[in-house]
Design goal:
The protein is an alpha+beta fold and 137 residues long. It contains 3 helices and 4 strands. 17% of the residues are buried.
């Protein structure tokens, strides 16, 4: 009986440890995603790059250039960002599902891909920049 009880306690502790690690991962992912989204929402592109992988940094740099060149056309949306769900797909990839609520009460749901690089969660490949086609006019 003692042996069975000991096995149960070991299994229970193992499950608790696994769940604790998963919650820590989700917390880390959420923290990075929120900082990235806040920086992008505030047009703080340099700050956003701190939370992005190299592929995403290329796009952020491009967005910053477009933003700077077209400052008179920039519209400031009053947007509230809320994390809805975090889905860990495997050890190195995850998705952050969030919603954008605008000042006119319209809502848009988005997915932010995440990747673990050097044991650190980063925003990953928002758009494949190499696949973008630009008009040469």
């Amino acid at each position: 009986m003692k042996h069975l009880l000991l096995q149960f306690v070991i299994i229970l502790c193992t499950v608790a440890t696994i769940l604790s690690c998963a919650e820590h991962e989700k917390s880390s992912i959420e923290n990075v995603a929120l900082k990235y989204l806040k920086a992008m929402n505030e047009d703080n592109f340099k700050e956003a790059c701190n939370y992005a992988d190299d592929e995403s940094k290329k796009l952020i740099t491009l967005l910053e250039k477009i933003h700077t060149e077209n400052l008179s056309m920039v519209v400031n949306y009053n947007v509230n960002l809320t994390i809805v769900d975090i889905v860990i797909l495997n050890d190195t990839t995850a998705e952050v599902r969030y919603k954008e609520t605008y000042g006119n009460n319209s809502i848009q749901y988005e997915v932010l891909p995440m990747k673990k690089v050097d044991n650190k969660w980063l925003v990953h490949k928002i758009v494949d920049i190499d696949s973008l086609v630009f008009d040469s006019d």
